[in-house]
Write a structure and sequence with these properties.
Blueprint lengths: L2 H5 L12 H13 L4 H7 L4 H16 L2 H19 L5 H7 L4
Helix pairs in contact: 2-5
Length: about 100
Amino acid sequence: MSLIDRIFHDDPDPSRNMNNHAFSAGVWFWAKGDLTRAHIVSAFELTTDDETQLDLLQAHYVSLTPGEKQSFHSDMEAAGILAESGLITKEIYQSLLGLT
């Protein structure tokens, strides 16, 4: 399963389902430079497949303008809430976060 499957709580092992608020918070502090990528990988027990999508997320963030970077965390938090609530599809989630 991938990171997005874990965010959507679609992992066959429910213990791997990810808390969207915690993940969003971790990515926020990683983007600010307060946490490292290794910390995120370790804290969320990311697999190689998860890390591939994490790297895509980082590549998208790095490509944003300073103004877009300011709203990125809000977008990620909001998309995660909608995903966790079953109100958007994985395709919409990926599109909202530049992962398409």
